[in-house]
Inverse folding.
């Protein structure tokens, strides 16, 4: 083989360099696409992790708020899971934060059957928790009772108010149990608690005279959905 032949063989075909450049460009483009894809994937994963970290915190706060609002010892309830309608109407954001400290730095809202009770900030993107509750209120009713006869109240109540202004009474019994007694006669106005689960029969002492003004508080209740939303 001549020197001229060796030189021709070393140079190779004229399309070889073009093909290498094309392959290099394709490799660079693939790396750019891969880098972008990895970046987007990592960004999505980071967002998902952030959401996963945030949502449980918000849910815990929402559940804690619902639990506190409906607890038996809550200032907003008549008993467990029975909220007092008038007390709920008086709820403020400051009072709610005092009841549920985890809400201190959060946007939140409380709704009852779709109506906003309290709201702070814009919790629209937060986590919500819903609970079925009873909403109750007391409707006071009064009647004048002959002290020598007594009366059985037609509706259940958790308390009874007595006005002895027009009566001479020393003792009051509710279902046979003495709830008020004063030798020489009861005077003015007295209120006693009674079991709400029972129909109460009221009786006065054998020597009682006149009429006693009796006020009782039958409960009216309806089902409702309590919704708490927290955006921490």
């Amino acid at each position: 083989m001549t020197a001229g032949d060796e030189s021709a063989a070393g140079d190779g075909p004229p399309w070889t360099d073009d093909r290498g450049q094309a392959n290099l460009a394709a490799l660079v483009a693939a790396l750019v696409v891969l880098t972008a894809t990895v970046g987007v994937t990592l960004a999505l994963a980071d967002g998902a992790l952030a959401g996963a970290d945030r949502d449980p915190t918000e849910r815990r706060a929402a559940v804690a708020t619902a639990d506190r609002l409906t607890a038996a010892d809550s200032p907003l309830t008549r008993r467990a899971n029975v909220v007092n309608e008038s007390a709920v109407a008086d709820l403020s954001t400051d009072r709610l934060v005092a009841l549920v400290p985890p809400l201190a730095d959060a946007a939140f809202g409380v709704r009852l059957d779709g109506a906003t009770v309290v709201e702070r900030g814009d919790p629209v993107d937060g986590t919500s928790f819903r609970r079925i509750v009873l909403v109750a209120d007391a409707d006071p009713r009064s009647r004048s009772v002959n002290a020598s006869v007594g009366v059985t109240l037609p509706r259940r109540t958790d308390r009874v108010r007595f006005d002895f202004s027009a009566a001479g009474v020393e003792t009051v019994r509710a279902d046979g149990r003495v709830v008020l007694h004063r030798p020489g006669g009861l005077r003015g106005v007295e209120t006693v608690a009674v079991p709400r689960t029972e129909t109460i029969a009221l009786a006065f002492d054998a020597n009682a005279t006149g009429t006693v003004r009796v006020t009782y508080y039958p409960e009216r209740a309806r089902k409702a959905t309590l919704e708490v939303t927290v955006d921490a």
The domain at 138-222 is CATH 2.60.120 (Jelly Rolls). Residues 158 and 195 are 6 Å apart (CA to CA). The radius of gyration is 39 Å. Helices lie at 3-11, 16-70, 85-89, 93-99.
